[in-house]
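Researcher: Next sequence.
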Amino acid sequence: MSSDDRECLAALTDITAYKNAEVKLKLAASVFSQAQEGIMITDVDGNIIEVNDTFSKISGYSRQEVVGQNSRIFTSGRQTASYYEDKWKTLKDHGYWRAEIFSRRKNGDIYPQMQSVTSLRDTSGNITHYISMFTDITKEKAHQKQLEHIAHHDSLTGLPNRALLADKLNQAIKQNQRHGKIMALAYLDLDGFKTINDTYGHSIGDQFLISISKELKLALRAGDFLSRIGGDEFVAVLSDFDQASDCEPVLERMLIAAAKDIICNGEILQASTSIGVTLYPQNGTDPDLLLRQADQAMYQAKDKGKHCYQFFDIDSAEAAKSRRDSLEAIANAIDNKEFVLYYQPKVNIKTGVVVGAEALIRWQHPTRGLLLPSVFLPTIEEHEMSITLGEWVIESVLEQMSIWQAQELTIPVSVNIGASQLQGNKFIAHIADALATYPAIAPELLDLEILETSALEDISRISDLMNACIQMGLKFSLDDFGTGYSSLTYLKRLPAALLKIDQTFVRDMLVDSSDLAIVKAVIGLAEIFDRGVIAEGVETKAHGDKLLSLNCHIVQGYGIARPMPADELPAWVVQWHLNPTWTA
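Model: Next structure:
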């Protein structure tokens, strides 16, 4: 009421909600326009309604050029019709899809994307729009390809290395089996190369190896495969023969190629080669077995006088009898409890902390003394005794951990799991029973080490078995990593927490550039895939310093401690804490 008795009416509206909505709209618009991912909104038929600036930067299309167009204009032709059917089915069933996909830029270039698509629904549950977000992963793919090349090729000669050989050998066996052909596996070791290295130095030796590699490749046929597996050793995979003798002309050419005069820095150098040969399918079907046979035959060739080739004789009665005798002796050793476990510590050389130990089996032979596993494990590799012995190891480790725990020592312990044991029908049940027997031992303290070569035999089954164990609290490591690596895809699918760099690479990495490149590659892979990494075979502080510089802190080897009996480990752990030598 005013002073002159006139009334004044005012209508007030609370616009707080409108202001809040306006702020949210501005925020959403800002996120849309400034997002580092390309964003595309389409209707239910795939017609483009809106895109952001990053979309234009990646695709090359302006907003005006694509709005109203169908998203099919980006189809690369790299994916099959079934791929897209699965994509749309997933979106329909789950409302979300994410995968790598190839797309096409405005200039026609095909490039890889990491793309995620979300479906939007109305109040009735009907799909009305799709929101696609993507990033250009061209650089990541190039880096991955570079890592794959490093992991699969010898840095000196550029030849495939042992890792790629394992993959190629498996492929060749399948190919020759399919076509009913014979495959020859040739193991080459240069004669006289050490003299060249010692006389002229490693630089000249490296030049010589590069030249010999080229000569050996020229001696092969199209489709043959040559790899360098270390030092002066090469392996050739020769396929598609009708008769065993058909491979001999190729072997003769390799002998001639390896004996050619090579000029390095004005010096005329010459070596030769001894070649061991084994045949598929005559001598077996297992790649590792065939490689061992070829290696054995190579030494027979050297014994014959070198500069020749020697075929493996699988029918050797003496070898067969020796195996039978060995199996019987191992069976008796199991019954007589002659096997014992030694433990090798694992330490963090950056902090000085003991982080675990590896259980290593030994045979306390009544007449031959303490035998290393290399003496007896290969004999039972594919025998049921390997499972029996493997189960004993797990049970013994858990028992020992409980003893240590009573002594106030609690550390993780890793055990090696063989392929036969891992894929055995009772593996999961045995692990569960063993853990139940020792309930005071936390499952995460038990680390199962599996060879990557055995893990790759049946990737789906191995992955399922590993996940079942992880559900129980166990952890996994990929042992001897780098010796049989086949594909980064397999590493992504195996839920191993740790990669273990094989000692063959660590031991010589200070003098062998190829081994150092592999060590670096494995550490890089561990970082990319967010896995831990440990190096075995650390023999000197120089090895430790190099690994520290490469960001690998967890190590084991003779430079730290030799494997020791279980009752010595607690005292060793105490004295190690007082030893500052290895701390960084």
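Model: Residues 385-406 form the longest helix (22 residues). The CA atoms of residues 184 and 279 lie 5 Å apart.
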